[in-house]
Amino acid sequence: MSRTVSLAVIPGDGIGPEVTAEALKVLHAVASDHDVEFETTSFSLGAARYLETGDVLTDEDLAAIASHDAILLGAVGGVPGDPRLVGANIERGLLLRLRFSLDHYVNLRPTRIYPGVPSPLADAGDVDFVVVREGTEGPYVGNGGSIRTGTPHEVANEVSVNTAYGVERVVRYAFRTAQSRRRKLTLVHKTNVLTFAGSLWKRIVDAVAAEFPDVEVDYLHVDAATIFLVTNPGRFDVLVTDNLFGDILTDLAGAISGGIGLAASGNINPDGTSPSMFEPVHGSAPDIAGTQKADPTAAILSVALLLDHLGLSEASAAVTTAVTADIASRAGRTRSTSEIGDAIATAVSQ
Amino acid sequence: MSRTVSLAVIPGDGIGPEVTAEALKVLHAVASDHDVEFETTSFSLGAARYLETGDVLTDEDLAAIASHDAILLGAVGGVPGDPRLVGANIERGLLLRLRFSLDHYVNLRPTRIYPGVPSPLADAGDVDFVVVREGTEGPYVGNGGSIRTGTPHEVANEVSVNTAYGVERVVRYAFRTAQSRRRKLTLVHKTNVLTFAGSLWKRIVDAVAAEFPDVEVDYLHVDAATIFLVTNPGRFDVLVTDNLFGDILTDLAGAISGGIGLAASGNINPDGTSPSMFEPVHGSAPDIAGTQKADPTAAILSVALLLDHLGLSEASAAVTTAVTADIASRAGRTRSTSEIGDAIATAVSQ
Ligand SMILES: CC(C)[C@H](C(=O)O)[C@@H](O)C(=O)O
Ligand SMILES: CC(C)[C@H](C(=O)O)[C@@H](O)C(=O)O
Q1: Is the dihedral of CA A331, A333, A334, A335 positive or negative?
Q2: How far apart are CA A264 and CA A300, in angstroms?
Q3: Is B287 close to ligand 2, i.e. is its CB under 6 Å away?
């Protein structure tokens, strides 16, 4: 009897629905070959839903989504500068609310330069690393405030909250990830300036390192890490860092590896106490929405991460292999979003 | 009668003294041609001084430095991991203390790709922008703390403090800088996550923009800004951003423009209420200290920024011209620190 997985699907805004359609096409194609079935429920969330109903994410939405085994998300966000969206903050109210409520403490963002993909770097070398970004703490907690707002005496604060509990669990995950790869872990922070948060991260990495004597550990300030990402990205295996530094480093990583159109991510709750969520790193790109110009590859690679997370590693590898072959065949060709999805879906079921 | 400028010199640690010696050589060479004299006082500060005396920067040091017209700094910081420096934090106690005490609210970091310099980018294009980094607020204020430190229940917070007063003055400086250049200003922040600080920055940029109708303004999230820095750095003219984002972006900018060995910076108090401080962006590189392998170019370009700040724009241009010509002649040559300094010093006085 085949296994059944319930999947909450949030296509979202802009190009989100288009790339999600292709990701699901590939998911269903590979599933039938690996004795698993995905039952999908689609949730209409994002800027469009907000403009229609005024809701960003209701408690009922959240409970319904949380009852699934996993989540696939396309992209959310309306047209930048849309006056009707001022004050809505779909990012905080939807994306970050999901990550925080579902305790997605690992934000997993792999970077590879696929054969055939041009990098903006003249000599990128062999690039294959993964950023383990903390997902539930740091400057993302939303503990800010302002006084005398709108006056010349305004003071606006943002608080970065970091806990031993929160840092240790993500650091431990990063060490395990390094152990399954090339056994190198780089902590990225800014310990010389953010001395309290930095000291906590550093002490926890040092303590956990003792349990993983086969993993080589080093440390870089975040500013120096950006230098190495453009001068010697091949030096990295696993990077572990806080929520904000991880946000910055992974966009840069996407850029050097040939564009954010290939960057996939998993918002993971490793303890399995709530469903993990997989999404491309790119945004909703409203300017090209509906034109079939979007590259669905990042969404499809997010499916590979999803399959891997569910323990379906063969199915995951089939997707990655099909994507890698497809990417290698791209030079000079222009295909629509669904043509790329069709090609990869056909390839995975062969 | 010639003008006399008093200059506090902080050679610092590692390669600091070597590059500072060359910077002073060039400064004195250009000064005599432009009817100005520099009286220098050297301050022995940094890791070496700390190890000798236990002092990082005494109130007396600070008062003595503050009585000068300007400051030239080489680099500070001991050997990474030196156990005797644990807990000293020379960066906070010396560099940041100077920036904060002397109210260096503009941290000016120009980036150019000089003709003849190889960039790690395959197709960098024409790159000439300047980052105006706020220098006295944001996550750098040192308002952090931790409770239950060292226990599994530790909470470590960092507070980013942003004021209308502090943001407005640096934003105004950035607009004036844009007006004297290509009239494009890009605000970089993370308004969708750091909603209070981001909103303050955004509102102030919008308000000040009304006074500069000839300057075109745009906005990028910090993660997106790193993408453009590697895919299309030519799009930037002036970037204005907070202390931490500015730190990260300028190291990346240094890297794409051919290395941090060419990146100069000014810590500026535009109101003239205290001396401004000029320094290369690079660190003290203790591993090559004393070997005459360090490139003094960033220190020499910091002299150009210093001269410009003092209103000696012809002398500043002479230094930039000499450096540009020297850089263009470098391909394949290896010269010692002092050979490079000698060549540029000779060129400026011709
Ligand atoms: C949209 C935004 C809130 C989000 C983040 O900052 O985490 C995005 O940039 C990302 O990296 O997934
Ligand atoms: C040494 C450090 C405190 C400093 C900073 O973070 O500002 C450095 O990185 C810089 O950019 O000048």
Answers
A1: negative
A2: 8
A3: no
What residue of B is the nearest CA neighbor of A256?
A: B230
Q: Tokens in use for B206?
A: 């919008």
This prediction's pTM: 0.96
Sheet containing strand B128-134, edge to edge, reads: B36-42, B3-12, B70-75, B276-280, B264-268, B106-112, B128-134, B238-241, B184-189, B216-221
Catalytic site residues of A? 140, 190, 223, 247, 251
Pair of tokens at residue B290: 């004393």
Least CA distance to A125: which residue of chain B? B120
Residue A207 structure tokens: 């303590």
For residue B33, indicate whether it is catalytic. Answer: no
Helices (H) and strands (E) in chain B, counts: 12, 12
Helix (H, G, I), strand (E, B) or coil at B270: coil
What domains can be seen in chain A, in order of their start residue? 1-105+270-350 (3.40.718.10), 119-257 (3.40.718.10)
Q: Is A342 exposed, middle or buried (0-12, 13-18, 19+ CB in 10 A)?
A: middle
pLDDT per residue of chain A (350 residues) written in tens, 0 to 9: 689 999 999 999 999 999 999 999 999 999 999 999 999 999 999 999 999 999 999 999 999 999 999 999 999 988 888 899 987 889 899 999 999 999 999 999 999 999 989 999 999 999 999 999 999 999 999 999 999 999 999 999 999 999 999 999 999 999 999 999 999 999 999 999 999 999 999 999 999 999 999 999 999 999 999 999 999 999 999 999 999 999 999 999 999 998 888 999 999 999 999 999 999 999 999 999 999 999 999 999 999 999 999 999 999 999 999 999 999 998 888 999 999 999 999 999 87
Q: Which two tokens stand for residue A55?
A: 């809701």
